[in-house]
Amino acid sequence: MADNDIQLPDAGGVTWSLCIRDGSGMPLAEVDADASLRTASVGKVLLLVETARAIVAGELSPDEQLTRSVEEWVGDSGLWHTLSVETLPLVDVAALVGAVSDNLATNVLLARVGLAEVAARATALGLRATALHDRVRDDRSAEHAATLSTGSAAELSALAHRISAGTATGPGSDLLVRQWLSANVDQSMVGLPLVDQAGIDPLAHHDSLHPEPALWNKTGTDAGVRADVGAVTIAGLTVSWAAIANWEPAVGTSLEHLTVWAVLRGMRLVGDHVLRLLTA
């Protein structure tokens, strides 16, 4: 542990990877930070990072029209699959990914940007344990990647720090990523204490609304996975984090409900710790 101990709930069979960093990027708290775990939708951050870089570099136009197709269709999280509009500007597709972790928007954007390009950007950023492996799928078979994304808390918290500092792919592109992710509506994990205690509106904390408190994050939820990566700035101080929990799911059982409850409690303890670091 780099600083104060965080007593995460001891839910049977849950593996944690956690890293919290200060504004200089130094670790303040760690639990198995180098462990590479499944991160569900958190890997979409890598897609947004490469998209923003390509927009600022002039390789992609934010106004390019992207049309959804049967090949990219997927349900679950998001809004686009519930809407009647077939075509959206690229920048709006990215906004849907950031705000509601939109799976259909993710697949449409990934088809345009390219999985190989996202992987190359991750490598250029020095990520070894963190990757987006595939498009989003309703069903995964043996021919597909085993999971959507993986990552370690050490690498993801460092990436969150760099995005906040404007040193990931550049000030302009990192600002775009922060704007997209500052619209995230899921504050059920690390973000919940920040909403409850720091006056952050869970639905209206977009970067364009006010300078501080500033919150952006990306969560990931799947069977046996909960993850939250992001950063918050209060009174000029920034703390970034990555918190990942994996376990073998027992879907539909009371044990699974208890495990999820314990994991979410652990995520909120991480949020409490982040808030203490900012207000001490």
Structure description:
- The chain is an alpha+beta fold.
- It has a single domain, classed as Beta-lactamase (3-Layer(aba) Sandwich), CATH 3.40.710.10.
- It is 36% helix and 20% strand.
- It has 8 helices and 10 strands.
- Strands 2-1-10-9-8 form a 5-stranded antiparallel sheet, sandwiched between helices. The chain has a 3-stranded antiparallel sheet with strand order 3-7-6.
- α2 packs across α3, α2 packs across α6 and α7 crosses α8.
Salient structural properties:
3-stranded antiparallel sheet; 8 helices; 20% strand; Beta-lactamase; 280 residues; alpha+beta; 5-stranded antiparallel sheet
Mean pLDDT: 94
- The total domain count is 1
Q: In CATH, what is the class? A: Alpha Beta
By DSSP, the count of extended strands is: 10
In one word, what is the shape? Answer: globular
Can you tell me the CATH superfamily? DD-peptidase/beta-lactamase superfamily
User: Share of helix among residues?
Assistant: 25-40%
Can I get a quick summary?
The protein has 280 residues and is of the alpha+beta class. The chain is built from 8 helices and 10 strands. Strands 2-1-10-9-8 form a 5-stranded antiparallel beta sheet, sandwiched between helices.
Topology:
Elements: E1 15-21, E2 27-31, E3 36-38, H1 44-56, E4 65-67, E5 87-89, H2 90-100, H3 103-113, H4 115-124, E6 131-132, E7 149-152, H5 153-165, H6 171-181, H7 191-197, E8 214-222, E9 225-234, E10 237-246, H8 254-279
Antiparallel strand pairs: 1-2, 1-10, 3-7, 4-5, 6-7, 8-9, 9-10
